[in-house]
Design brief:
The protein contains 8 helices and no strands. It is globular.
Length: 245
Protein backbone atom coordinates (compact mmCIF):
# COMPACT_ATOMS: atom_id res chain seq x y z
CA UNK A 1 0.00 0.00 0.00
CA UNK A 2 2.78 2.38 0.96
CA UNK A 3 4.56 1.55 -2.27
CA UNK A 4 1.48 2.41 -4.32
CA UNK A 5 1.03 5.71 -2.43
CA UNK A 6 4.69 6.58 -2.97
CA UNK A 7 4.38 5.80 -6.67
CA UNK A 8 1.21 7.90 -6.93
CA UNK A 9 2.91 10.79 -5.17
CA UNK A 10 5.88 10.57 -7.53
CA UNK A 11 3.60 10.57 -10.57
CA UNK A 12 1.67 13.60 -9.28
CA UNK A 13 4.89 15.51 -8.61
CA UNK A 14 6.18 14.66 -12.08
CA UNK A 15 2.93 15.84 -13.69
CA UNK A 16 3.08 19.10 -11.75
CA UNK A 17 6.71 19.60 -12.75
CA UNK A 18 5.87 18.88 -16.38
CA UNK A 19 2.97 21.37 -16.24
CA UNK A 20 5.23 24.04 -14.69
CA UNK A 21 7.88 23.41 -17.33
CA UNK A 22 5.32 23.55 -20.10
CA UNK A 23 3.93 26.86 -18.78
CA UNK A 24 7.43 28.32 -18.49
CA UNK A 25 8.20 27.20 -22.04
CA UNK A 26 5.05 28.87 -23.36
CA UNK A 27 5.86 32.11 -21.54
CA UNK A 28 9.44 32.00 -22.81
CA UNK A 29 8.25 31.42 -26.36
CA UNK A 30 5.82 34.33 -26.12
CA UNK A 31 8.41 36.78 -24.77
CA UNK A 32 10.98 35.69 -27.35
CA UNK A 33 8.80 35.69 -30.46
CA UNK A 34 5.46 37.46 -29.93
CA UNK A 35 5.95 40.90 -31.45
CA UNK A 36 3.00 42.39 -29.59
CA UNK A 37 4.50 41.34 -26.26
CA UNK A 38 7.96 42.60 -27.26
CA UNK A 39 6.47 45.92 -28.44
CA UNK A 40 4.56 46.39 -25.18
CA UNK A 41 7.66 45.59 -23.16
CA UNK A 42 9.77 48.05 -25.14
CA UNK A 43 7.07 50.72 -24.81
CA UNK A 44 7.18 50.45 -21.01
CA UNK A 45 10.98 50.60 -20.80
CA UNK A 46 11.31 53.43 -23.34
CA UNK A 47 8.56 55.42 -21.60
CA UNK A 48 10.28 55.01 -18.23
CA UNK A 49 13.48 56.52 -19.57
CA UNK A 50 11.87 59.15 -21.81
CA UNK A 51 9.78 60.46 -18.89
CA UNK A 52 12.52 60.11 -16.29
CA UNK A 53 11.80 62.01 -13.09
CA UNK A 54 14.55 64.30 -11.85
CA UNK A 55 16.72 62.82 -9.09
CA UNK A 56 15.03 59.42 -9.49
CA UNK A 57 16.81 57.41 -12.20
CA UNK A 58 14.62 55.35 -14.50
CA UNK A 59 17.34 52.70 -14.40
CA UNK A 60 16.08 51.74 -10.92
CA UNK A 61 12.91 50.47 -12.61
CA UNK A 62 14.19 49.29 -16.00
CA UNK A 63 17.03 47.20 -14.57
CA UNK A 64 14.79 44.87 -12.50
CA UNK A 65 12.22 44.82 -15.32
CA UNK A 66 14.96 43.75 -17.72
CA UNK A 67 16.11 41.09 -15.27
CA UNK A 68 12.59 39.64 -15.00
CA UNK A 69 12.13 39.80 -18.76
CA UNK A 70 15.39 37.96 -19.45
CA UNK A 71 14.55 35.36 -16.81
CA UNK A 72 11.19 34.73 -18.48
CA UNK A 73 13.05 34.36 -21.80
CA UNK A 74 15.40 31.81 -20.20
CA UNK A 75 18.31 34.06 -21.12
CA UNK A 76 19.50 36.04 -18.12
CA UNK A 77 22.00 38.87 -18.51
CA UNK A 78 24.46 36.39 -19.96
CA UNK A 79 22.13 36.12 -22.94
CA UNK A 80 22.64 39.80 -23.83
CA UNK A 81 26.39 39.88 -23.30
CA UNK A 82 27.33 39.57 -19.62
CA UNK A 83 29.42 36.50 -20.33
CA UNK A 84 33.10 35.75 -19.98
CA UNK A 85 35.14 37.37 -22.79
CA UNK A 86 37.51 35.25 -24.83
CA UNK A 87 40.51 37.02 -23.31
CA UNK A 88 40.05 38.76 -19.95
CA UNK A 89 43.47 40.46 -19.96
CA UNK A 90 42.99 41.89 -23.45
CA UNK A 91 39.44 43.04 -22.65
CA UNK A 92 40.54 44.70 -19.41
CA UNK A 93 43.50 46.45 -21.01
CA UNK A 94 41.49 47.61 -24.01
CA UNK A 95 38.64 48.78 -21.78
CA UNK A 96 40.97 50.86 -19.60
CA UNK A 97 42.69 52.34 -22.68
CA UNK A 98 39.40 53.27 -24.37
CA UNK A 99 37.93 54.69 -21.15
CA UNK A 100 40.96 56.93 -20.55
CA UNK A 101 41.12 57.98 -24.23
CA UNK A 102 37.43 58.89 -24.43
CA UNK A 103 37.52 60.92 -21.23
CA UNK A 104 40.52 62.88 -22.57
CA UNK A 105 38.75 63.43 -25.92
CA UNK A 106 35.71 64.74 -24.03
CA UNK A 107 37.86 66.95 -21.78
CA UNK A 108 40.08 68.45 -24.48
CA UNK A 109 37.85 68.45 -27.58
CA UNK A 110 34.15 67.64 -27.21
CA UNK A 111 33.27 69.65 -24.08
CA UNK A 112 35.09 72.86 -25.20
CA UNK A 113 33.33 72.69 -28.57
CA UNK A 114 29.94 72.14 -26.93
CA UNK A 115 30.48 75.04 -24.53
CA UNK A 116 31.71 77.32 -27.33
CA UNK A 117 28.53 76.47 -29.22
CA UNK A 118 26.50 77.90 -26.33
CA UNK A 119 25.20 74.65 -24.83
CA UNK A 120 25.42 74.68 -21.03
CA UNK A 121 26.44 72.01 -18.58
CA UNK A 122 25.39 72.03 -14.94
CA UNK A 123 27.34 69.66 -12.70
CA UNK A 124 26.25 71.34 -9.47
CA UNK A 125 24.85 68.05 -8.17
CA UNK A 126 28.49 67.02 -7.74
CA UNK A 127 29.40 70.11 -5.71
CA UNK A 128 30.43 67.99 -2.72
CA UNK A 129 33.12 66.13 -4.63
CA UNK A 130 35.90 68.78 -4.98
CA UNK A 131 38.33 68.32 -2.09
CA UNK A 132 36.16 65.63 -0.47
CA UNK A 133 37.90 62.27 -0.94
CA UNK A 134 35.23 60.03 0.71
CA UNK A 135 32.58 61.64 -1.50
CA UNK A 136 34.79 61.08 -4.54
CA UNK A 137 35.12 57.37 -3.77
CA UNK A 138 31.36 57.02 -3.11
CA UNK A 139 30.51 58.66 -6.46
CA UNK A 140 33.04 56.54 -8.35
CA UNK A 141 31.68 53.30 -6.89
CA UNK A 142 27.94 54.08 -6.93
CA UNK A 143 27.35 56.56 -9.76
CA UNK A 144 30.39 55.71 -11.83
CA UNK A 145 30.37 51.92 -11.70
CA UNK A 146 27.15 50.51 -10.24
CA UNK A 147 24.62 52.79 -11.97
CA UNK A 148 26.77 53.98 -14.87
CA UNK A 149 29.07 51.20 -16.01
CA UNK A 150 26.98 48.18 -15.06
CA UNK A 151 23.28 49.08 -15.04
CA UNK A 152 23.32 51.57 -17.93
CA UNK A 153 25.36 49.30 -20.19
CA UNK A 154 23.32 46.23 -19.31
CA UNK A 155 19.97 47.98 -19.93
CA UNK A 156 20.64 50.64 -22.59
CA UNK A 157 23.09 48.61 -24.60
CA UNK A 158 22.57 44.90 -23.92
CA UNK A 159 18.85 44.80 -23.15
CA UNK A 160 17.45 47.54 -25.42
CA UNK A 161 19.51 46.64 -28.50
CA UNK A 162 18.58 42.96 -28.31
CA UNK A 163 14.87 43.64 -27.78
CA UNK A 164 14.80 45.70 -30.99
CA UNK A 165 16.64 42.86 -32.71
CA UNK A 166 13.86 40.54 -31.50
CA UNK A 167 11.27 42.96 -32.87
CA UNK A 168 12.85 44.03 -36.17
CA UNK A 169 15.26 41.21 -36.92
CA UNK A 170 18.92 40.44 -36.31
CA UNK A 171 20.01 42.68 -39.16
CA UNK A 172 21.19 46.22 -39.88
CA UNK A 173 17.73 47.66 -39.28
CA UNK A 174 17.20 46.01 -35.89
CA UNK A 175 20.69 46.91 -34.66
CA UNK A 176 20.54 50.50 -35.93
CA UNK A 177 17.16 51.23 -34.35
CA UNK A 178 18.25 49.58 -31.09
CA UNK A 179 21.48 51.58 -30.94
CA UNK A 180 19.75 54.89 -31.76
CA UNK A 181 16.90 54.42 -29.28
CA UNK A 182 19.27 53.28 -26.54
CA UNK A 183 21.57 56.24 -27.22
CA UNK A 184 18.72 58.76 -27.17
CA UNK A 185 17.42 57.36 -23.87
CA UNK A 186 20.94 57.43 -22.42
CA UNK A 187 21.26 61.10 -23.41
CA UNK A 188 17.83 61.99 -22.00
CA UNK A 189 18.88 60.42 -18.71
CA UNK A 190 21.47 63.20 -18.37
CA UNK A 191 19.03 66.04 -19.08
CA UNK A 192 19.38 67.29 -15.49
CA UNK A 193 23.03 68.13 -16.26
CA UNK A 194 22.10 70.54 -19.05
CA UNK A 195 21.69 70.37 -22.81
CA UNK A 196 25.47 70.24 -23.23
CA UNK A 197 25.58 67.01 -21.24
CA UNK A 198 22.75 65.59 -23.37
CA UNK A 199 24.77 66.20 -26.54
CA UNK A 200 27.96 64.84 -24.99
CA UNK A 201 26.26 61.70 -23.69
CA UNK A 202 24.49 61.00 -26.98
CA UNK A 203 27.90 60.89 -28.65
CA UNK A 204 29.22 58.77 -25.78
CA UNK A 205 26.33 56.31 -26.16
CA UNK A 206 26.87 55.89 -29.90
CA UNK A 207 30.56 55.14 -29.40
CA UNK A 208 29.94 52.67 -26.57
CA UNK A 209 27.17 50.94 -28.50
CA UNK A 210 29.76 50.54 -31.24
CA UNK A 211 32.10 48.95 -28.68
CA UNK A 212 29.36 46.53 -27.67
CA UNK A 213 28.79 45.45 -31.27
CA UNK A 214 32.51 45.33 -32.05
CA UNK A 215 32.97 43.00 -29.07
CA UNK A 216 30.36 40.67 -30.62
CA UNK A 217 27.73 41.88 -28.16
CA UNK A 218 29.85 41.15 -25.13
CA UNK A 219 29.15 43.74 -22.42
CA UNK A 220 32.44 43.59 -20.55
CA UNK A 221 34.38 45.87 -22.90
CA UNK A 222 31.88 48.79 -22.74
CA UNK A 223 31.33 48.20 -19.00
CA UNK A 224 35.04 48.50 -18.20
CA UNK A 225 35.56 51.46 -20.54
CA UNK A 226 32.45 53.21 -19.16
CA UNK A 227 33.54 52.72 -15.55
CA UNK A 228 37.06 53.99 -16.22
CA UNK A 229 35.75 57.00 -18.12
CA UNK A 230 33.33 57.88 -15.30
CA UNK A 231 36.03 57.42 -12.68
CA UNK A 232 38.38 59.81 -14.49
CA UNK A 233 35.59 62.35 -14.83
CA UNK A 234 34.96 62.31 -11.08
CA UNK A 235 38.69 62.61 -10.38
CA UNK A 236 38.83 65.66 -12.68
CA UNK A 237 35.93 67.21 -10.76
CA UNK A 238 37.66 66.40 -7.45
CA UNK A 239 40.84 68.15 -8.67
CA UNK A 240 38.89 71.17 -9.94
CA UNK A 241 39.79 70.52 -13.59
CA UNK A 242 36.12 70.31 -14.61
CA UNK A 243 33.92 73.21 -13.41
CA UNK A 244 30.72 72.07 -11.73
CA UNK A 245 28.60 75.05 -12.87
Amino acid sequence: MRGKLATLGFVQKKRKKDMDTSLRNRISEMFNHNRLVISAELFVVVALHALEVKDFPAILFSFPLGWISLWLRKLGWRGVGLRRPMNWLRTLGLGVLIGVAWQLVEFWIIDPLILQGGAKMDLSQFERIPGNFPNLIANILISGWMFGAFMEEMVLRGYIVNRFVDLLGDNQKGLTVGVLVGSILFAIGHMNLGIGAVIENFMFALVFAGLYLAARRNLWLPIIAHGVCNSMGFVFIYLGLIPIT
